[in-house]
Amino acid sequence: MDLTIRAGGATDVGRTREHNEDAMLIDSALGLFIVADGMGGHAAGEVASRLAVESVRGKLAESRAVLRSQVGRLGSPRVREEVIQLVEAAVQHACQVIYADALAHEERRGMGTTLVVCLVLGECAFITHVGDSRLYLVRDGLIRQLTYDHTVRNELIRQGNTPLAEIEELPYKHAITRAVGTYECTQPESLALELVPGDRVVLATDGLTGYLDDRDYDFAGGLSDAPSDSAVTFVDYANSCGGRDNVTVLVLNVDGDSSIGRERSRRLALQRESLGTVSLFSGLDDDELFRLLQPTESRSFPEGDTIVREGDPGDSLFVILAGKVRVDKKGEAINVLQAGDVFGEMSLVRDRARSATVVALAPTELLLLHRTDFETFLRDETRLGVKILRHFVHVLAERLEGSSSELSALRASVLHDD
Question: Which CATH architecture is the domain 257-418 placed in?
Fold first, then answer.
């Protein structure tokens, strides 16, 4: 599927600040789009945001050939992870550059910046962020915030030890807990996003996003066919609300065959819904399932193909998206599974040989989640990982309770017969 990215941005000092410490980058040739919000006295914030943008671009430009060589392989979660590692390495490089500059200039000590990086390769966007600048996706009229603010409020929510009511009363709850350049290293968070025609991607500093949280604003209505006009509309809105901070907005319009886009969007929605049928993930909401798609891959099998073989190592969960399969045990058919059914679920949490053979009875499309990719996801998505593991414990407890009840009933039946 051929995609075209049209990008436009706008930045403004706002209504209360004396100078603009934000920075942005549009490099369509590299497929790189960045927004940064600097901080630090004596105009050091401007230096930090500028150095961040320049350093990330320079580092990724050095990897241009490697990145382009991966375009045809992005269906693999492992390849997507390799690209993410390159982007995160560029962010760490920027962090070191800013930190070293601050050490060399006394007046810039402590300077740093937020950062949102969006690298588009083929049909994928690779998003890495630090701080409270954000990236939103608008698809099929739905708006998703794909980044997670690194603030005191959100870190306390992640830890789960402080009541939300107490957190909301903290005067410093919006203070940033992570930045680029204040220390020699930082902690970026990343995700891979599969793009479809019609998508709109918005990168913005908190000069805009602070007002989006506080007010009922028609976000999707602010988007037009011209991304530059959309960016100006958002900046004007922030200033009309008071413009208490610098505001920078960058908008990406994803263009392509609309019929292909509708079909691809439908299939991605089907994948999310199918993941939601897995008992391990049944406690996740739609946005969380959206993120869980990152480590998955789809694979097609022709009629007659053996998908898994009894006795082979088991390390993947399979969700049937389309088609039909037969389950054989010791050479005998024991079940037929169709679209929406799941097999191999426990392979995500234990190392055990396959207990049955599964054969495609028709052309079949499966959604796969490998254990190693799932473990990487749990490590990187700590908040979501904790929720999944808590739900997993709940599911196990219910199954144990059910098994105990069945055993008690069986024992009572045996005693009665005696």
Answer: Sandwich (2.60)
